Amino acid sequence: MATEAAALKIHGRSSFHLHSISAPVSDVTSFAQPLRIVWAAVIAGAAMVVAVMGWLATETEAHALAEHAEVGFYAVALLSAATIAGAFALIRVMEGKLMAAESDAQAEGLIRTFGIASLALAEVGAFAGAIAAFLTGDLLALAFAATFFGFAFLVWPSDDRVGGWLALRRL
Fold this sequence. Notes:
mainly alpha
């Protein structure tokens, strides 16, 4: 197990892709279920904000920053790229800290803390796109919500993924 993790580290692959090393499913499920509920609530909240702001953008006649729609779009693009990169970096930092965790409780705390922090950071791009769409009337800015939803899908706390994260403590 440790040699597989070392080989992944040497080849530059992320260790959270380790699915062959995992904690017992009952332990993982009882820990991962509340994570999934919180993540689903955050994702649903972002979807509602994006939908409402998109609707408001279509219903509003005059947009405060309509003449700056292009600048707004590129600003949201840059912000979205930076926040997604930061969110993935937080996941990598979490994995490193999990390898140094001294107990299962500490590992679970790290997963909770870094998972929600990375999700919140990724959500910034979705909110910025919604705000830009409302202020400029450019609905294309709403497309940056897709980066948030993609991130949430890629690091969704499934039993396998959480089991792999928890197993990093035992390496």
